Amino acid sequence: MTEATDHPPALVQGGRAAALAGACVRGALAAGLGLGSVTVLVMVVWISSPYPDSGPGGALHVAAALWLLVHGAELVRPATLTGAPAPVGVVPLLLVALPVWLVYRTARDAAEPGQDRPRPAAGGAVCAVTGGYLLVAAAALAYGTGGPLPSRPLAAALHLPPLVALAAAAGVWTAHGRPTGPLPAWVPGRIRVGLARSRTAVAVRAAGAGLAVLLGGGVLLVAVSLVWHAGAARESLLSLSGVWSGRTALLLLAAALVPNAAVWGAVYGLGPGFLLGTGAAVTPLGAASLGVTGPPPFPLLAAVPAAGPGTWAHWTVAVVPVAAGAAVGWTCGGRRRVSGVPDPGLRDAAAAALAAALLVGAAVAVLAAASGGPLGTGRLAAFGPVWWRAGGAAVAWTAGLGVPVALALRAWRRRGEDEAPGVPAPPGPVAPAAPDPVAVPGPVPPPDPAGPPEALGPHRPAPEDDPGDPAFEPYDFLPAAWEDPVAREARWSALREASGGLMTAFPPVPVAGPATPEGGVRDEGGVRDEGARDRNGAREQGARDDGTRRYGPSTPGPSGNASTDGASGGRAPGPDVPGPDVPGPDVPGPDVPGAEASRAGVPDPEAPGDSEAPGDRAARSDVPKAPDADDPGPPRRP
Q1: Residue 370: what pLDDT?
Q2: Is 0.85 surpassed by the pTM of this model?
């Protein structure tokens, strides 16, 4: 159940072609959902009406026509008092959100890959969703032709495809992660470079802030005016219908036109105002006379100011564009300097504010054109704000106020960022300080390892042992006391007491090490006998004396090398190299002058062993040896 909810099955399974077909089907379903929602609303109103003008077929035709009107298609009312068809082109902007949201969600879901289908191409997904949606729109256009409010085919062809394509493109863009580039190759290089700059993003954010302030101010103006003219609004509602169903329908229509009223209020605050008929302009400077009848009876139109010149209460609406320009300037000039990023500077702040003003003007012009339209012929042929006037006024207000505010704020922030807080600037030029003398390092003699520990200098902790060092690590290798037998036994005793009798009572087995012989000392290299050096010296001296007595003066050996003593057997004596630090027992040898060497545990190479025959020793003594230049030999007789 969870898997089926999280991953709904695909409508069409297969490759990319099947995915595009599924996207087309999804677009048709989105159009059907929107048309069905409007149809349900119209049928509810028709059923609740006590005096319907037509049957259910007429209600269905009206629903199809109203669904096309939501997309911007202009309708035609053929049954008029004069007999001439009257156009109806005012689109309730609140109802436009329904098809736009449906197309957006459909395109986003179609562009995402599913379990059994790959992700279609971005352009293919947009075209497929748009095509499926327009198929249903064409059928609705053909069905509504014979109804009381048919739609003009040309108007439908000019408004439906762009709206649906833009909504589908936004959905596909969202499905791909809202990428900001790269732009297509056919886009000019200057435009691509300009859009890639950081001030472009700042300008877009500033334009959004300015537009939001404008529309919010328009809503506030409409609300205040409705409260001020609450009596007139109530009378218009009661005069249009005497039953609760009709009044409910009027309230629903007024709610759908609230975004239109917000745009009108914003344009009124900008200055150009709006039209309530041909030549009947309503501006803060004054409202033209609408004749004896005044504006058409409708609750929202009751908030329109009365005819006549404007007063100070009407002029206070200038606060709305002033706030919008200040919002644009604050967004463009209020950026703080980011470390590692160059300072935007005054020029970039002004350019961003100017670009934001142009974007605000374009958005206001589009909204003004969408919020108005004709409501008939004659005087009602022009109803609502004029788009080019509204756009121009928006650019003038936001650029005229936004650019100076951005420059001033940017200069103020640069001044605060350049000066350190709390440190006054120096009153005048300060001479540079003389550099400190640098000591030339000389040769440092190495310390004597055999000397006292104080000669090696004070102990300096390593960087990793210094708590003030950034690389200090509180967790390091365990100290040497961790291997101390006393500390180890204490730890075992604590663990045994904490275990509650679960651990055995025997102490841990100590680590076996080399035994220290009696009379020996322990140093870094192990255990060494105290008389090792003395025995080594005695062994060498005994060997030298023994060789001299047994073999006589040194003679050249078979190898031709000079020998200092007979104990070396033709080898040059070397320095006293201590043997391995493994003590051995004293082995008694024969009572010869080199006995000390045997008792020291090192065999004498010249001492006769058990494996040497007397003949071999005699043969070895008869070998002549090379004379030694340093040894004068025995004294000669005269």
Answers
A1: 94
A2: no
